[in-house]
Amino acid sequence: MSRYSVEEMRLRLARRLDPAGSERRGDLDLNPDVVWPTRLPLTPAAVLVPLIDRPEGAMVLLTLRTDHLTDHAGQISFPGGRVEPEDTGPVATALREAEEEIGLDLCHVEVIGRLDIYETGTGFSITPIVGIIDPGFSLNLDSFEVADVFEVPLDFVLDRRNYEYHSRTFDGVERHFHALPYQSRFIWGATAGMLVDLYEKLCA
After folding, report:
1. Contact 121, 30 (CB under 8 A)
2. 121 C-beta neighbours (distance < 10 Å), count
3. What's 155's domain CATH number?
4. Domain region containing 76
5. Residue 41 belongs to a domain
6. Is the pTM of this model over 0.85?
7. Which tens digits make up the pLDDT trace of 11-31?
8. What pLDDT digit, counting tens, does each position of 65-109 carry?
9. How many structural domains is the chain composed of?
10. Measured distance CA(175)–CA(153) in Å, rounded
11. 1 found inside a domain
12. How are the residues of the chain apportioned to helix, strand and coil, as percentages rounded to the nearest 5?
């Protein structure tokens, strides 16, 4: 039996998530001495953090980006993207992008709140929108952007022992980042950082 049911998550998230999402974190937190080649000003973006209401317990839905994309190609991410002029805010962006990227019908999404804004070294300011997804959904992937989707048990995400701290050299500079290996998947960077935030909001 899963330790974390979606109903429990709904109650805990409603109490602990900041509706305004005013706090910030990001790549700089782990790399205070690195000069990032960021685009300034940072590009506003939003992602949906989907928690699926499975009978056996909550699951987190993640996507694998295709290898030819300009930003974060081949990486594991949440559905999301840049804020467009027609979007009324980050919630609208996250829901629109989830519908465009993976075909998630908005009628299956209950928005709960926001995690901290995550600022990346690649020049994005990302607002993570947490949503509860009922299990009756179906998906239709945009094959240009999404190579695959998969689910990770929320129990696994909320176990701090599963997180790792890695470093790699990019352009001759060593950079540190969070990672969450799961089976054959390597979740790292901004996505892992947002999952660390989810863990801290609920368990720390």
Report:
1. no
2. 20
3. 3.90.79.10
4. 6-203
5. yes
6. yes
7. 777 777 766 667 889 888 888
8. 886 555 555 689 999 999 999 999 999 999 999 999 999 999 999
9. 1
10. 28
11. no
12. 25, 40, 35
